[in-house]
Specification:
seven-stranded mixed β-sheet; about 400 residues; three-stranded antiparallel β-sheet; pyridoxal phosphate; Aminotransferase_I/II_large; EC 2.6.1.-; single chain; aminotransferase
């Protein structure tokens, strides 16, 4: 028996990232245009870094509040008042070591080993992996791809529920598809969850990247007191802070002690100086969100308009999030295609196969980047498509 064989099956069977495979394959190439990762190309704004630096210089390096420092929790509640019209108290807010950490601890809280969780495919691969590592059974419900757009059939969700179902993971606007739930979609899902007494874990990280105008519809618009809904969010996308690994949860205060315990037994809290940077971002950084949104809107138009003009890309412009999920005529094996595209064009795309069932013929490109880079990438990809 090898050392690896002696580890738990939950650990050793965790899937390798199909995105990272392509990144590792192409990251050292000259003249590379990397559109494979879910982040922009701008560093964190200086005022955010300065706030963390001042806190570090002031000695804010000790253990701190595991639910988050009080000023940050209050500022997150204010963020929801500004952008969602929601009246939340700081007691609803829990700071975590990234959005991924928030998801993982809520998967632990909502499911026991062998119980089931529903999510919508194609999906950001980390949710299925988090469920598997926690011992829950992943139940993928496919979104429907018709005439270049993705849609949800709530009847499929209802049909997937069993007596072991404990939660529904809802990512909207969605990575990688750009699917954005309507209020009707959310109402249908909430009614299903109420009827069956199950939790909704709502990943609304891209809520402000909604290209129809204003933020995307949210469960906050329709939920009532007592609904079993927890929201996941992160500082990564809005404020160009992907490497900081700071996120948060919005959850009923009634389960706060459980969340605090799970933070204690995973990270024991987020460093206080990092929370001070996050505080500056969410308190003073609405202009950063607006600037990133405008860059994303422009990038979406540059990339999608050029590729759609080839008449060989079926996908329409996404309604939300940061990704074009491209179905290209002639491509069925996206992993092989992503490797080939790196070799022949120097453009890095994520293979749709990394996003589970339904994603196999697609390629994902992040368009939160410099306009010149996207114009270059679009021309290289259009030329590649024309030669297929």
């Amino acid at each position: 028996m090898t050392l690896t064989d002696s580890l738990s099956r939950r650990a050793t069977q965790a899937p390798e990232s199909g995105i990272v495979e392509i990144i590792n394959y192409g990251r050292e190439r000259d003249n590379l245009l990397p559109l494979w990762a879910g982040e922009g190309d701008l560093p964190t704004p200086q005022f955010i870094s300065d706030a963390a630096r001042v806190a570090l210089d002031n000695g804010e390096t000790f253990y701190t509040h595991q639910r988050g420092i009080p000023p940050l929790r209050a500022a997150i509640a204010d963020y929801y008042a500004r952008h969602f019209g929601a009246k939340l108290s700081p007691e609803h807010i829990y700071v975590t070591g990234s959005g991924m950490h928030a998801i993982k601890i809520m998967v632990e809280a909502m499911t026991d080993v062998g119980e089931e969780a529903i999510y919508f495919t194609p999906a950001w691969p980390n949710i299925a992996a988090a469920l598997g590592v926690s011992g829950a059974r992943q139940v993928g419900v496919p979104l429907e791809f018709t005439n270049g757009r993705w849609n949800l059939d709530p009847a499929r969700v209802e049909a997937a529920i069993t007596d072991k179902t404990r939660m529904i993971f809802v990512n909207t606007p969605a990575n990688p598809t750009g699917w954005t739930a309507s209020l009707s979609d959310l109402s249908a899902l909430l009614e299903i969850a109420r009827r069956h007494g199950i939790w909704i874990l709502a990943d609304e990280i891209y809520a402000l990247y909604h290209f129809a105008g204003g933020r995307a519809p949210s469960f906050l618009d329709i939920m009532e007191e007592g609904d079993r809904i927890v929201f996941v969010n992160s500082f990564s996308k809005n404020w160009s802070m992907t490497g900081w690994r700071v996120g948060w949860l919005v959850a009923p205060p009634e389960i706060g002690d459980t969340i605090e315990n799970l933070v204690q037994y995973t990270t024991s809290g987020v460093a206080q100086f990092m929370q001070q940077g996050a505080l500056a971002a969410i308190r003073d950084g609405d202009h950063v969100i607006a600037e990133n949104f405008e860059r994303a809107r422009a990038g979406r138009d540059i990339l999608c308009d050029r590729l759609l003009a080839t008449n060989r890309v079926e996908t329409l412009k996404p309604d939300g999030a940061l990704y074009a999920f491209l179905k290209i005529d002639g491509i069925t094996d996206s992993r092989r295609a992503a490797l080939d595209i790196v070799d022949k064009t120097g453009v890095g795309l994520a293979p749709g196969s990394a996003f589970g069932p339904g994603g196999e013929p697609f390629l994902r490109a992040c368009f939160l980047r410099n306009a010149g880079q996207l114009e270059d990438a679009a021309e290289r990809l259009a030329d590649y498509i024309g030669r297929l």
